[in-house]
């Protein structure tokens, strides 16, 4: 139940981050809605398509669509005040990152996939909405260049399976996994950590 | 039967519009074929993948492939005369928009999905081939920026369900839905209507 | 068995070619890994999604993931020496092209699809990893503009069905198909052959 509420909060935050980027690209309201939608549910949709869990998630539960629509309307109305909410939005977004990772890992487990694949699915769920958003906005995905985003999901996924190996209760696994993802993301942003880039001399 | 004929006409028109854009990008004949293919059947393919209706449509009915191949050959041969046919092409394209919307909505209904999702599927069927085409051509999708295209599909989809609620006969529902999509699209182009774009000051 | 070994060699070579392009784009190590991954298994993944063979291939056999990881590590360590291996890499890449085509065709046959669709699936398997790679790197896919790559797969696929029609043994079909793909690709590169591009005056 709690995880569902957090899932919706994450969806809301991801949708707003999509709106902000679509506005920068001067899209019309339809474009803004699609970018918000894709940012919020694109990762989960890709995950569902790859494992064959169709119709994909948002088709079976309209609350995702309603949440995204609400996020779009609110962001358009308060468009010039969103910057003041930057910190809250970042926090919600980070919660979404943690929760989406857990959901992706759990779906992988219920499909009987190998732990490594489950971690990949958690990472896809949490961070590939942003990848699809960037492609639709004609940019190289930011998480391939500088944002340490997926790494937090991967380490969270590893935490999940380590704790599961020690037979911790599900609730505790969820809390520690989310805490891991969230704290890595916060540390990374606070200390402006970047993964090294590699190129040929 | 009529709807199948119209579907093929729409596929033909969409394929030609793909060829025209691929030529602008100076692609080779393979690239031109792929862009034509994606423009024509990309929306339906995305719809089928999202709901798990696989193998996707064009794999089960080669007429789509043949139609697209024919469209590519004809457009390459008559490449310098296509501009004279601009009006006819626009008309066929608009017919395709109406028909693809109806097909998408119907497929959603037969998958027992919620009317909102069915309307989304109609819109995806009719307008996301162009989105995939634009991404492959390295452009921000035109329907996210200025073309009022998807909105016509959405309003057509709503018309569909309103008429269905009043138990109209299927044929009439189809005719009115297509008429709605087509007339909105024609009005929009005639009066150069655009959706408002929103951005931060 | 041999085809599996060649499949892994092809995966390795495709992954390295992905790394090289990701480095040119100055991606970080996560981005490099994803581009390598997508280049190597993206075509097969798209094929599996389109025909509904899910979970997609690399989720059921971790050897693909391990091979790609190894390819990324090796390419990063020896990044300034890769140019000397250009010829070997090109050869491995071409072997991959041939083998991936055969695998795609075979999967189409076991899904009872029409030979034309099987050839399309072979071509998608072998050449659409590069398409997805180019999109993620924000480029118009190189095989739509100048590289004669997919054409080799198509001609290989046709060879496959011609020989099958004459009831050749499977092994021989494989060898001749791969030989066809590989020799066309080599000829094309040696003589710098390009497909004609078409554009309006």
UniProtKB/TrEMBL annotation, chains A, B, C:
Highest taxon above the source species: Bacteria
The keyword Membrane is annotated on this UniProt entry: yes
Membrane-spanning segments: 6-23, 30-50, 62-78, 90-107, 113-136, 148-166, 172-191
Membrane topology qualifier: Multi-pass membrane protein
Subcellular location(s) of the protein: Cell membrane
Glycine transporter domain boundaries: 5-79, 91-164
InterPro entries per UniProt: Gly_transporter
Keywords carried by this UniProt record: Cell membrane, Membrane, Transmembrane, Transmembrane helix
Similarity section: Belongs to the UPF0126 family.
Protein name according to UniProt: Trimeric intracellular cation channel family protein
